[in-house]
Amino acid sequence: MARRQGSSAGSSAQAARTPTGHRHTVSTTAAATQLLRQRWEDGKLHSASTDSVVTEEPLEIRLRGQSIALTMRTPGRDEELASGFLFSENILRQRTDLVEIAQCPDAPIESRGNIINVFISPECSFQISQLQRHFFTSSSCGVCGRAAIEQIHSNHPPLQEDAVKFPATSLNLLPDTLRRSQNTFKQTGGLHAAALFDTNGNLIVSREDVGRHNAVDKVLGHAFLNELSLCESILLVSGRVSFEIIQKALAGRIPLIAAISAPSSLAVQCAQENNQTLVAFLRGNSMNIYTGAQRIT
């Protein structure tokens, strides 16, 4: 895709109320940064000009004041990213579990806008061990994908059989719809994207981020904050689909995951055991259906 120049917006703070009246106040900064660069073309070095480069900055997520995660992300929609991450990790289960998301008031000047506090209901239990990433072992298979899937199922059971159908003709149109929504990608050429669609291929929400998992967390967070049911929805990702993306889709009870690029072996295995439909290489009028073909009509 051709890239075009774009100007970057300044930082600003915004306060918003969700449909349920809960507050989530975060910092919004530019998703693209203007930098000088020189271009080598036709055997010679040309003079410097401005270029739009995707912004990448750290985001520290604190839960009840305790640091629980640090991710490199594209600034913007941080409340969605944090909500989606905590939802997919089974810390947040329903909208009433979340009280507030706010900037850290005592953050150093250089970290302003990059540290957020998440406050959850006193009735919402939380153990830091829930967020500790580790290898899963078992006496039968040692370190393997089977143990990882079983760990996921302890929090998010497989989907039940359903009668949801997705027209193939609608699926074929999704990549172009996603591409048209990628405004920062048009400027920089350097972002992943994720989007949610309904059964007829209508766009619900799309988000961009330097990290593919962050983009998925943002669309899940949007659905969580607005109390949207995703049990008849499609998750489309702009690149490859991994085990973790399948796990996040399962947390949202999403029956169909589609990728423009390839799946991993563990993603296919996990989708099969979750009773999810996994489509990859969704390009033009073709696609590969790895699991759950009964949902495609």
Description of the structure:
The two termini are 31 Å apart. Helix 6 packs parallel to helix 7. It is globular, with a radius of gyration of 20 Å. It has 2 domains: 117 residues, Ubiquitin-like (UB roll), CATH 3.10.20; 138 residues, Cytidine Deaminase, domain 2, CATH 3.40.140.10. By secondary structure, the chain is of the alpha/beta class. A hairpin with a 5-residue loop joins strand 11 and strand 12. Strands 1-2-9-10-7-8 form a 6-stranded mixed β-sheet, with helices on one face.
| Record field, number of beta strands | 16
CA gyration radius, whole angstroms: 20 Å
What composes the largest sheet?
Answer: 6 strands, mixed
Q: Low-confidence spans: pLDDT under 50, at least 5 residues? A: 1-29, 133-143
SSE order: EEEEEEEEHEEHHHHEEHEHEHEE
Name the strands of the widest sheet in spatial order.
1-2-9-10-7-8
Overall shape: it is globular
Instruction: Note the total helix count.
Output: 8
How far from one another are the termini? 31 Å
Strand content: 25-35%
What is the name of the CATH topology of the largest domain? Cytidine Deaminase, domain 2
